Amino acid sequence: MAVATKSNWKFGSGSDSNDGDDEYDTQLQTEAEHFNEIIIKQEYSEEIEITTELTETYSDDDLPGGWEKIDHDSGMPLYINTETRVCSFSKPYFLGIDSLKNHEIPVENVPCLNQKLNNETNTASTSTDSTSNKCPVTLSHEEYRNYCSKVFKFRNIKCYKFNSWVKRREYIKKLKANLKTKDLQQTTSSTSDCVVKSEDKIFSMDDLQHFINLRSKNFIGLLVEYLQRELKTSNYSFEIKELEHSKYPYLSTVVIDGIQYGVGTGSTKKQAKTDSARATLHILLPYFKHFQTNKNHQANNKIKEDLEKYKIFDILKITDSRILDICVQSTESTPYEMLKLCIKRNFGENSNLLYEMEQIHCGSGTDSYYRCTMTVSKYSATVICKDKLGGRQKGAQALLKVLHPHVQFFGSLLRLYSHQHFEYNENKPIKPKTFETDKYRSRPDVNLLKTLRKNMLKLELETNE
């Protein structure tokens, strides 16, 4: 705003008036200059702007649509999208049909790297007076990572790529189940609030092995709790099949880690699953039926006979060396016979058991041993034995242990694969029933009728006479 000044001037005559005019002009000029300086200061101010010195090859003509270049106060170019007001200090570029995650990176769009390479190129060309040195146009992902690794830290993340969405969903489902199992193990206390008693004593830890809460739970719930808390696995399922049977049309099989365990039948799917869960618990926990008997106060002769029959095997480990002799004396299935049945049930009839026997010698050279290796599918076991016959049985025991990591005692395997134990075979052919006796019973007996007629005629003749 202009500053107004007020001055009082006195005018005289003669030479005094000329001197007054000169003084007036001088003062008026001084005030005008001061007035102009005030106006200039109010209209604009002098400032210094900083900008980068770009190379001759740099151009802003190839910016994508909607993007503009603005000079930032820092001196670096700033790019803004006028529609979305998204800013970037790196020059955006149009991708086109190239891959988003795996395409050549233009060096021009990485400002610091572009300037560094240009400086190195200019220095090299100046020192060698050569025009062959040029800044690269694009970078591969490995070259760009090597440049960024000088400032940033990278870490490797394992990723899984699936061939189909079905396999991916199965993997995610299994992963979520494992996470639920871990959460259950962390939140569930290690001790149980129930005590399982027999008629005269409390079972010891050696007999029970694990405490299971039996209150208000069915067989399926007990099996799931045992698998999650004790065996720490979530890879289990119930396979349901339909049978041509009017009374029990459903067959359920419990599969744990790809190996079949208990089998059960029922009039409904739920009943079949419950029966298979009960059979599986009886295999995994030999004393499980003792618990149910004591709980319900019922004596089942079949259960008692079964428990007494396999009592000796329920205290022998699967790899015990005495098993073969006891099986021969008790006319039970040998480990090798049980292994063949196990392979047939779990891997199919066409699966082959690879059996290798290699002779090895000790340092003295007098004693020789055999190294027996048995392999089926992805499972394998190797044992050292003195003779081939014993090595085959011992190798079968070792392979059975590998196939059944959740089973500790040999009695549980006998309940699965013994030829004397009851096993339902859904593939067993149904023989047609013969009704020859009923057929003959429904027909009239011609010979008997002839004899009867002959005797009746004879009796009539005698009566008439």
Automatic annotation (TrEMBL):
Domain called WW: residue spans: 61-94
Record key words, sorted: RNA-binding
GO cellular component: microprocessor complex
Biological process per Gene Ontology, one example term: primary miRNA processing
Region (Disordered): 1-24
Transmembrane segments: none
SUPFAM superfamilies noted in UniProt: dsRNA-binding domain-like (SSF54768), WW domain (SSF51045)
Keyword S-adenosyl-L-methionine: no
Name of the molecule in the record: Microprocessor complex subunit DGCR8
Gene3D superfamilies in the record: 2.20.70.10, 3.30.160.20
UniProt domain DRBM: residue ranges: 218-286
Gene Ontology MF: a single term: double-stranded RNA binding
Biased composition (Polar residues): 1-10
Annotated InterPro entries: DGCR8 (IPR040375), dsRBD_dom (IPR014720), WW_dom (IPR001202), WW_dom_sf (IPR036020)
